[in-house]
Amino acid sequence: MSTQSKNASTMASVSQAVSPGLENIVAAQTVLSHIDGAAGRLVVRGYDLDSLSSWSFEAVLALLWKDLTPVYQDVAHISEALSRARIRAFALVEPLLMATKTLSHVETLRLFLSSLSDAEPEAHHIMAVAAVPVFAAAIARRDAGLAPVAPVEGLGHAANFLQMLHGEEASPDKVKALDTYLVSVSDHGLNASTFTARVIASTKAGMFSSVIGALCALKGPLHGGAPGPVLDMLDAIGHERNIHTWLANTLARGERVMGFGHRIYRVRDPRADVLKKAVGTLQRDSPRINFAQAVEREALSLLAEKKPLRPLETNVEFYTALVLEAVGFPRESFTNVFAAGRMAGWTAHVLEQDQVGKLIRPQSQYVGPMPQGQ
C-alpha cells in the first residue's frame, strides 16, 4: 500500500471514530464502577450502590483501593492514616485563608490542594482524601467570619467533616446522612473529572496534579454545579400553592427543571433513591424537605406528560441539595463537598491508571484547509 493510501486509510478510520463528547467511546477498562443507564444501576467493585449505602466512607475507600496500593488496605489502617493526614492538612489552612478571601469556595479549594507537595511523606491518596474536608470546612467558616476548627482524633471521616464545619459534634443522624452522601458519589464511571484525572495520571504527573485537574473539571456547571441551583429553584417556588404554576410555566418556556434528568440514566438515578432514604432521617432538621418532595412529585408528573416516551427522572442533585443543606453546608460549598466524596474515586482511578502505565493520547480529525497547490 502506498504512503498516500495509508494516510487516506488512517484518516478514514479516525473519521469513523469521531464522537463529540466521546459519547459511547470506551477509553479505559476499570474494576472500579459500572453504570447501567437503562436499568438505573450503579455497581462499585461488585456491590450495588444500595448495599453500599450502609457502609462507612472509610470502608468504601478500602473497597476502591483494594489491590491498587500496597499500603492502607484495611479500614482500621485507613482510618488511622486519615487521622494523621487531617492534622497535617490543617497546619496548611491558617496561612492560606487570608490570601484567598476574595476567591470562591471551589477556587480556594483548588489553591489549597496546590499547596500539597509531591514530597509529602504521607501516602498521597490518603492525603488527598483527608485534606478536602479539612479545607472545605475552613473555607465555609471563612465566609461566615469564623475561625477554622481543627480535626478531632478518633472521629470518623464524616463526623470530623461536620465537627470542623460547625465547631461541635454533629448528631448521629446527620453524620450518617453525610456518610451516605459521600459513599453515593464516591465513584461514577468515566465522567469528565475522572477522565481528566486519568489523563493527567497517564503522564506520570502524580496524584496531587491529577486530582487538582479533576477538581478543575468538576468546577464546570455542566458537571458539578447543579445541587445549589436546586435550592435556588425551591426558593423561587416559595410555597406549595405555587408549585404547579411555577413548574408548568418553566416547562412551557422550554427551561430546565433543576434536579431532573441525567445524560446516562434513562430511568431514576440510583443515587437519588439512596439519598432519599437518608433525607427521611433529617426531616425534623429541615422544614424544606416535605416541601421539596411535593415539588418532586409534581415535577415528575408534569415531565411525564411533556415527554411520555422519555420522561425525566429525579437525579442525584435533587436530594444532594436537601441532604447537604440539612446537615448545615452553605450552598456555595456544595461542589467542594461533592469533591470530598468523589476524591475516593479520583484517587482510585489515578492508582489504577498508574498500573496501566500507558499515556492517554487520542487522535483528532483535522477539518481545516490544506496548503494550496498540494
TrEMBL record:
Catalytic residues identified in the record: 262, 317
Keyword presence, ATP-binding: no
Domain of life assignment: Bacteria
InterPro entries documented for this protein: Citrate_synth-like_lrg_a-sub, Citrate_synth-like_sm_a-sub, Citrate_synthase, Citrate_synthase_AS, Citrate_synthase_bac-typ, Citrate_synthase_sf
Catalyzed chemical reaction(s): oxaloacetate + acetyl-CoA + H2O = citrate + CoA + H(+)
Keyword Transcription regulation (UniProt): no
GO cellular component terms attached to this protein's record: cytosol
Official protein name in the record: Citrate synthase
Organism: Rhizobium skierniewicense
